[in-house]
Amino acid sequence: MAYKSADEILKPDSLFDNLCGVEPEGVRFMQLADHHGMIGNVQLTRSAPAEARDAYRTRITALSDCS
Length: 67
Prior knowledge:
Largest sheet: 2 strands, antiparallel
Radius of gyration: 14 Å
Oligomer: single chain
Strand order of the largest sheet: 1-2
Number of helices: 2
Strand content: 5-15%
Shape: globular
Low-confidence stretches: none
């Protein structure tokens, strides 16, 4: 599994450059907190490979520290 380097981890992912959120005030580009909100409640089961569970747990922790 490929990981981003430490200096790249907090940079926006180009896959999400054009993702927007719609709110009563209007349309805005999504932010890191929005991404965290989308995945924050996801729970991987024990049937997921250990490598995937470890990577997910690491990324959730990193995102939690940024929110």
